[in-house]
Amino acid sequence: LPTVGDIIKLFRLKAQKQLSQNFLLDLRLTDKIVRQAGELKNAHVCEVGPGPGGITRSILSAGVEQLLLIEKDARFIPGLQMLSEAAPGKVRIVHGDILTYKMEKVFPKHLKKNWEDEPPNIHIIGNLPFSVSTPLIIKWLENVSKKDGPFIYGRTQMTLTFQKEVAERLTANPGAKQRSRLSIMSQHLCTVENCFIIPGQAFVPKPEVDVAVVHFTPLVQPKIQQPFELVEKVVKSVFQFRRKYCFRGIGTLFPESGRLKRTEELMMTANVDPTLRPFQLSMSQFRNLCNTYRKMCDEDPSLFVYNYREELRQKKMRPFLKSTSQTEEENQL
Q1: Nearest CA to 308 among 253, 261, 266?
Q2: CATH fold for the domain made of 241-314
């Protein structure tokens, strides 16, 4: 196999800052990342953003059955083709964007497992550009919740890199200052493990931050059994004012008229202390909030479509609209 260094030189590849690309060239580290995915012998693997192919080589060395490479940056395709020629019949290269790429049909049907069974022999692995990592994991968590996308095959496992602080948010426990929307959204749907830290200087070019490798295994039963959109709305609202008491953020779920009464009703029914800060709430408290909010939405369907920011925007527009209509009246006179 050509080394990654050879490929970079041959095709004069440079990491693009605007795409937040950072290459990992140390084979010991790429092997270590791939080991976190578990046993890959005869597995089907999708690697996201392989770039010059550092992790790709380590995946191929693990004896996989099939490797699908999804790369957005066309400059890397010729180098990946060289790697694929060294492993005939094993590698498929897709020039595309993982955020829009449909993964429902990329693996053979016979690999499908029931959700309650062991995870299928399918793995997603990737050293993600920082700009993509958070929107992508939110998208995949929604797929986990709906059992579609790469999770149509069962509880597909993921091994991905994130900025260290994002990884800390993904794995933070109640009370930790990194506890955030990401902590709840990921931990209610998956077992999330922060495997190890890679120092920034191991990458080319060196990013300002260290990088963490995180492993996800979808749970058989989510901790909160409500639709993804509802959980996300409640969690986003709670963390909207993360330094204030949690009732402040929860209030943004309700229109201004009747806000206080409904916020009190939600918190009393869910049995949540209104003077806790958002990062102090446990998963079961979030579950109670979501379940109670769901009941309130079932009783008043207009509630779920209510948007706090839109109401604020319209409030700010009111004086302007008033003065405009006054001017129009005066003009008509």
Answers
A1: 253
A2: Helicase, Ruva Protein; domain 3 (1.10.8)
Give domain limits for the chain.
Answer: 4-218, 241-314
49 assigned to a ligand binding site: yes
CA 273 vs CA 185, 238, 267: distances in Å: 21, 13, 7
pLDDT of residue 24: 79
298 annotated among ligand-binding-site residues: no
Please check if 173 is assigned to a binding site: no
Q: What is the pLDDT of residues 232-283, one digit of tens each?
A: 999 999 999 999 999 999 999 999 999 999 999 999 999 999 999 999 999 9
- Kindly report, residue by residue over 283-330, the tens digit of the pLDDT: 999 999 999 999 999 999 999 999 999 998 888 887 655 555 555 555
Higher pLDDT, 284 or 18: 284
Give the CATH H-level superfamily of domain 4-218: Vaccinia Virus protein VP39 (3.40.50.150)
pTM above 0.85, yes or no: yes
Q: Is 288 annotated as a binding residue?
A: no
Residue with tokens 């209610």: 188
CB distance 88 to 18 below 8 Å: no
Q: Is 71 annotated as a binding residue?
A: yes
- Binding site annotation covers 22? yes
User: Are the C-beta atoms of residues 56 and 48 closer than 8 Å to each other?
Assistant: no
Residue 65 per-residue DSSP state: S
